[in-house]
Design goal:
The structure is a homodimer.
Chain A (H helix, E strand, L loop, with lengths): L3 E5 L12 H11 L4 E5 L1 H4 L2 H6 L7 E4 L2 E4 L1 H11 L8 H31 L6 H23 L11 H11 L11 H11 L2 H19 L1
Parallel strand pairs in A: 1-2
Antiparallel strand pairs in A: 1-3, 3-4
Chain lengths: ~220, ~220
């Protein structure tokens, strides 16, 4: 059965692969699962048909027969659980890979989201320029710890896993900030993920959507 | 095998069950799994022995034989996957329950963490009073959507699951704000979780740690 995901008709990231369909596309490419994409507009995301799939009116969603899921981490996990290649067979290694998925979303991403809020939502507020260094220090605390744990390894825990896929997706949100370059092993880690053929296919697919929307 | 978790020697929440050992204790109580607790101090959390278990120097951790995990969501998931009672048997219902775990951590919690940062970390900053209403509106957007999805149901998707356990843990962080009372069905949902015998046992256990530390 070919699953259908949703993605932005016109992504606000201008095709840089920062929208949340990207990790889902990447996971599907890693396991070799073809998929279909239904594009939704910003107004369409808030309509009842989409809200029935995604209570928070966002993308991506994932439909496969009777199953409808939302939340990119949950969708990546579902794909990883039902295909080989994104979770180790060993039970303990599998639990640790899942831990890295949760760590990416629960520990690394929150201060990065705060940064996005400061840069965009609160851009014109008096305090934004003063707050940004405070936020960046909180991000650095997390990156330093992550960098220390990764060390010289290629991936966070043995083989490439869904934990790396989600973590790299989160770290890519910092690309424009230049902060990753302060941690060379993290920059190399992200580059290693981006060099995977499955990442390239996923990236190109979402970029093609942006290009088509811009031409249209 | 009896797992060992870590918790604060002296929790900054003064025993209100908002520290992240609480969802782990609650999950263990729901499935009837006895556990041991090792208390760690704030300085101890940053020492090498603890950092080897938790790269971000926080609590909780979870040790079970050769397995060491961190990140409360990942630990709750591990417990749910290895015991009956926190995830439905039906594959689709199970995937949806896992989706709610990720939604709690990835969608509901980030603006709530921003609120905590504004209230505590940036408490004395000039902008905090002005920013708080903006943050609260972002929280309300998420709560309104969650409230709409929950409707009159007892739990988010059929039976009580790890998704509800994590979601209620996240919503309880808003207790002191009074915001939950704007959404009566969410208040009732949290109260329903707090009334579960397993929640009470977990709450009492963490409260006893706080009481002992205060007396000591």
């Amino acid at each position: 059965m070919i699953p259908t995901i949703t993605a932005f008709e016109r992504s606000p990231d201008r095709g840089r692969g920062l929208a949340r369909d990207m990790p889902v596309r990447w996971a599907l490419e890693e396991v070799g699962q073809p998929y279909e994409v239904r594009l939704v507009s910003f107004s369409g995301m808030k309509e009842q048909a989409h809200l029935a799939l995604h209570p928070f009116g966002q993308i991506p969603t994932y439909e496969e027969g009777d199953l409808a899921l939302f939340e990119s981490g949950a969708i990546v996990f579902h794909i990883a659980e039902h295909h080989r290649g994104l979770l180790p067979d060993d039970a303990n290694a599998r639990a640790r890979a899942i831990t890295w998925m949760f760590a990416a979303i629960g520990t690394i991403e929150p201060p990065i989201l705060e940064r996005s809020t400061a840069m965009f939502v609160e851009r014109d507020a008096d305090w934004s320029a003063q707050r940004l260094p405070l936020i960046d220090d909180r991000i650095r605390n997390r990156l330093a710890a992550l960098s220390g744990r990764l060390g010289n390894a290629d991936w966070l825990d043995g083989m490439f896993s869904a934990g790396d896929l989600v973590m790299i997706g989160v770290l890519r949100r910092l690309s424009a900030s230049g902060m990753l370059s302060e941690y060379p092993n993290l920059s190399a880690y992200v580059a290693r993920g981006e060099a995977r053929p499955a990442f390239r296919r996923a990236f190109d697919a979402q970029f093609a959507v942006f290009t088509a929307a811009s031409a249209g």
